[in-house]
Every structure is written in C-alpha cells, then in structure tokens.
Design a protein that fits this description.
By secondary structure, the chain is α/β, with parallel strands linked by helices. The protein is built from 21 helices and eleven strands. A hairpin with a 4-residue loop joins strand 2 and strand 3. Helix 1 packs antiparallel against helix 2, helix 5 packs antiparallel against helix 8 and helix 15 packs across helix 16. The C terminus is likely disordered.
C-alpha cells in the first residue's frame, strides 16, 4: 500500500509542474501505473482481508486509496454526466450509481476496517462528482500556462474545497455558502470567469433512492452586473418586490436571493458601485442569511453562496466613505486576485499565440484558420507594440486586437498617459531602459501636470534648460511611437 502512496505522491508533483493542456507521455504513463497499482492493492485488501487499519495513519491511507480508485474508475462517466447537463440541465438522474454503490460496499467489506460515518456512499459519490465538476469548470474558464495562472487555479480550487479536502468532506461541504468570495483585479482580467468556475462547482447532495442529484447543477450561476442597472433595479434584481412597491411594479417579483437554490451562487459584479442603502440590506443578508422583498415585511431565507467582484481599491473607497467597512469585513473571508494580461505575458510571452488562438476559435470552427490568425496577431504585436506593451484593456483588448488584425492586419491601441507610465515601469522591471530615458519620462510627466518648465525645474531640482531638453526628447519619442502605431 505504501508503494501505491509513493506513486500517487510522485504523480501529484509531476502534475503540479505540468502546463495546462500540454500532452505529457511521462505523466500519462505514470498515472496508468498509479491507477493499476492502487486498484491491485485495493482488490487484494478487499478479497483477502489484509490488515490495513492497525493505526490511524494506515486507516487514512486506506481511505485515501479508496477515494482515489473510486474517482478514477468513474471519472469518465462523471464527465459524461457533466456534458449531458449542458443540454438537459434539469435531468438529475444517474444511471451508474448502483455500480458505484457495489464498488463502495466491496471496498469497506473487510470487518476490521471502520470508516468515518460521514463518508457514506451517497455523500462520497457527490464529493467525487464535485471534484470532476471543479476540474472541468476551472480548466474551461481559466486559460493559460503561466505561473500566475497556475497560482490562480490553485486559489480557485482552495476556494471550492479549502486546502484540506478531508476536512471539507467531513465537515464543510454543506457550509461553504456561508463564506463569501471576493474576486479583485483589473478590469478585463477574468473576474467573472473565476466566479463562474467557483459558482458552478459547488457541492450538491445525491439521493440514493431516486438515484439522482437533489438539485439541478446546470444553470447554478446567477450573475448581476450592478454597473448596468439603476439602484432600484439592482435592489429588485437581488431582493425582489411586491406588487405596487414602486412605480411600474405591476406584479410581484422574486429576486435572485429568493430563486437561488442550495448549491447555487449569486455573483455581484462591481460591488463597489452599490448604493449605501443597498449595502446596508446586503450586510443583513450576509449576517443573518435573511432578507425582505421591496414593499413587504415577510422574511425570506437566502440558501446560496454570494460571490462578489471589484476592480476598485475598496480600502480607498472605505476611506472616502463610499463603501461600508463592516460590509468589507463580511466579504473578505476568501479573496482571489486575478493577474493582468501584461503580467502573464511577462512570465511567458508565448502565451500571446495561445490566447489569440483561443479567441479565434470562439468564432471559427477551423483550428488551422484560428492558428493562422493567432500567428498574424502575435507577429503584428511583436513588430509594432513589443513585449513591453502593458495591455491596459487586458483580455478584452487582446480579443479586439485579434479581430483588428484579422480584418485590417493592424491594430491601433488607445494610448494614454497611464499607459506610457506602465510601459516605463515594465521596462524598468525587465531592466531594459537607460537612465536618460527615465529622466526624460519623469520630466515630461511633471511638465504635463505643471505646464511650466520653471515649475518643473523647481520640483525636480534641475536646471530649466535641462528640463526643457528632456521634455522635448520624451515628447519626440512619444510622438514617434504614436505614428508607428
């Protein structure tokens, strides 16, 4: 059994170092050996009654072996169930549960093996299916191979299962809705995709009598874009309203907090834009899991999980009095930060081609054509923008760049002062800028704010003629770059 454990640990380390979507024969070969060895050890233990639970450590090792083998025996059928739910989200039946139940009973047949009562067959089935859903959604929504993306996937995994899967399976599986997840990061960096991966991978219990899940897992994610709605509509979308509660409320309506079932999630994008009045009502939901519809006093319960996102500096918003501090301390128990596109490309410039192909494939069914468009985009960016381009629009900007290059074989980015400053910072990080360029850029930045060579010289403490010469030099470079683009 310890040989099987050693193989599992080796496979795990190799998998951690494996870039996403990259074929690796060594890994595939090792995993085949792991599964074969683990199944052989398990079958031998079950058939011959080998003593495996002489100590707590050995018992846990045996339990891990059962979970590992059970997952790999049924993972392809788990995946087929996930795919089936995409077209029929309300079909909750599972036709292979009885086979899983026979396998599970066989694993725990030796009389000397005593498992935790919380690890029942239906619960274990639901947990293993949840693992497959998490793998599926994390890799469906989160693209890339950079170290930053690998870290992001690990953060999402922990947000779903915590860092201790054993404790999750025993104690936390039905309590994670009490933990609000805050996704922060620059606009266009994929915050909603992170929220979808988490919201669509939650635990849903299984009914062994009906041989079906108790709640539909298709359509389990309910996004609300706060910035696109007026305060009244935001409140109605979330809490619902009674008939006649306000002008235009000709009939009663249930909001997402009411319609959200156990195992489902509500996602609030741009939470920093909530009005103070709605912030107070949201705070009550997080404190008591209760709410009222607009225009009525009846109390309703919220059974789902709340995921929120913001590209604002919430600490600054709290200092300025536009965001409640007590609300922040209700949403910061699980914080995930999405990395910018520029940061990812700095770690792995080759990802530009990968992302370009993925964007092209969203519109094209021909992989060769998508690859050609991606190559054209990468070549144009390399020749005209360079590796130091900061991509202020992140993935949204890159997607539009792909279409611009496809249509006109060029792309004209929106250059701003902040973009130039970010470009300089990127060059400094990469140690690819001389001191004279730093001084020229600094002089130009101050001059643009003061409008005076004399005032700029006073601030920087340089001769006025030196300041003018550097401003003109930096301005010439900026104009030349704009013309080249």
């Amino acid at each position: 059994m310890r040989h099987a454990k050693d193989l599992v640990e080796k496979a795990s380390k190799l998998a951690d170092a494996l870039p996403f979507d990259q074929e690796n024969r060594e890994f595939d070969s090792l995993m085949s050996r792991v599964v074969f060895t683990a199944e052989s050890v398990l079958d031998q233990t079950c058939q011959q009654g080998i003593e495996v639970a002489a100590s707590d450590e050995e018992f846990r090792l045996y339990q891990d072996l059962v979970l590992f083998v059970s997952y790999y025996r049924f993972r392809e059928r788990f995946q087929a169930t996930i795919q089936h739910s995409l077209s029929k989200p309300d079909d909750l039946a599972v036709g292979y549960y009885r086979e899983f139940e026979r396998h599970w009973t066989k694993c725990w047949n030796p009389s000397h093996v005593k498992r935790e009562s919380s690890y029942s067959c239906p619960h274990t089935f639901a947990c293993l299916f949840m693992i497959r859903r998490a793998f599926h959604h994390i890799h469906e929504f989160i693209w890339g191979r950079s170290p930053e993306i690998q870290t992001l996937r690990a953060q999402i995994w922990e947000s779903i299962f915590t860092h201790d899967f054993r404790r999750f399976g025993l104690l936390l599986y039905d309590r994670m809705e009490n933990v609000t997840t805050l996704v922060s990061g620059p606009s266009g960096s994929g915050k909603e995709l992170v929220a979808r991966a988490i919201g669509m991978s939650r635990y849903i219990s299984f009914d062994p009598k009906a041989q079906a899940f108790r709640e539909p897992f298709g359509g389990s994610f309910h996004p609300v874009n706060i910035s696109a709605l007026s305060p009244t509509l935001v409140e109605s979308e979330l809490f619902g309203h009674a008939k006649g509660a306000f002008t235009g409320a000709s009939s009663a309506r249930h909001g997402w907090f009411y319609k959200c079932r156990p195992g489902h999630s509500v996602f609030l994008d741009e939470i920093g834009e909530l009005s103070p009045a709605i912030q107070v009502k949201l705070l009550r939901v997080l404190q008591s899991r209760e709410f009222q519809r607009i225009g009525e006093t009846k109390i309703h319960s919220f059974h789902g999980k709340l995921i929120v996102a913001s590209n604002r500096d919430l600490a600054k918003e709290i200092q300025e009095g536009t965001f409640r501090e007590d609300l922040y301390y209700r949403i910061c128990s699980d914080v995930i930060t999405t990395p910018s596109l520029a940061r990812q490309l700095q770690s792995d410039p080759g990802q530009l081609l990968f992302f370009g192909e993925r964007f092209a494939m969203k519109q094209l069914s021909n992989r060769d054509a998508a690859h050609e468009i991606a190559c054209d985009t990468a070549a144009w960016v390399d020749s005209n923008l360079g590796q130091d381009y900061p991509w202020p629009g992140n993935f949204r900007e890159l997607e539009q760049c792909v279409w611009n290059v496809m249509i006109r074989k060029s792309y004209r980015p929106l250059r701003t002062k902040s973009t130039e400053a970010e470009s300089l910072v990127n060059k400094l990080v990469r140690q690819q800028v001389p001191a004279s360029d730093i001084l020229a850029a600094y002089c130009l930045e101050i001059y643009q704010k003061t409008g005076s060579y004399a005032a700029t010289a006073k601030i920087i403490k340089l001769d006025q003629r030196t300041v003018k010469r550097n401003v003109e030099r930096a301005s010439h470079v900026t104009k030349a770059e704009a013309l080249d683009s």
